[in-house]
Design goal:
With 323 residues, this protein is of the alpha+beta class. It folds into 2 domains: 200 residues, Rossmann fold (3-Layer(aba) Sandwich); 109 residues, Formyl transferase, C-terminal domain (Methionyl-tRNA Fmet Formyltransferase, Chain A, domain 2), CATH 3.10.25.10. The chain is 26% helix and 27% strand. The chain is built from 8 helices and 16 strands. The longest helix has 25 residues. The chain is elongated.
Length: 323
Amino acid sequence: MSGFPRIIFFGTPDFAVASLERLLAAGFQVVAVVTAPDKPAGRGLLEKISPVKACALQHGIPVLQPLNLKDPRFHVQLRSLNPDLQIVIAFRMMPRQVWALPPLGTFNLHASLLPQYRGAAPINHAIINGERETGVTTFFLNEHIDTGKIILTEKVAIGPEETAGELHDRLMKTGAGVVLKTVEQIVSGNAGEILQESLIADPASLKAAPRIFREDCRIDWNRDVGTIHNFIRGLSPHPGAFTTLDIASGEKQILKIFRVVPEPMDPPCSPGEFLTDGKSFLNVGAKNGIIHLAELQLQGRKVMNTGDFLRGFGRIFHETRGI
């Protein structure tokens, strides 16, 4: 393949790596990668590089790690690379001086069917809301977040038990294929440009996907079992839904819950109350039934299935409630 187009790739996490590798495998020229600065991590606070940087170094691609995307020195670096096209996946909001630079534009891969679920956490919110379908979208960047003209979309069904982590991995692979198709269409001059406004019949129908903070992950046991089930799998494995154990001794413990089985029924206990035989099952009361816990993690411990968890920590559930 010729040296056209010269691509600059912006991204940081694993979700972006699949697309970068797909482009390279297809023979496209990525002249530089822009990713987050290295961060100290672990007990030794050693510098940890992003997955995208690791991929770039493996392929011998120059890496830029600006602290400030508005820094004029960074803009000089970008211009010196003479990019024809820029691709952004799971990265920061970009100033106009950056996304407007290449003649073929800058496009983004978003993990939803835009205009639905604009925002930082579309995968989580789609599952939390009980959606049965989502997908990926490529669109040209503009001044506003996730509102640019749509190039391509591809739908993906959501399994009834699927977690956010599992859906993330499937959308990552689907998205890599859509990114490749998008580049091919842009290069051939056949890229679609659908205004998102044309897809919005009623603005009130739009569902948002804002960033999720720690307190947003607390389980409300007063809700129905289906809602709780979706909430837990929509936050699994990261950032993780949790409840606070109010132990009889007065101690409080954080319990993260990753997999459950909901059972609608006449509740045998009040919302937030635990039921267990201390050996094989651990259930929690909800508004209209019980939640069977299947995979969980006590603060500071490893993730366990219910049987292993009870063998190690079953004693704490005497007169314990989730709050």
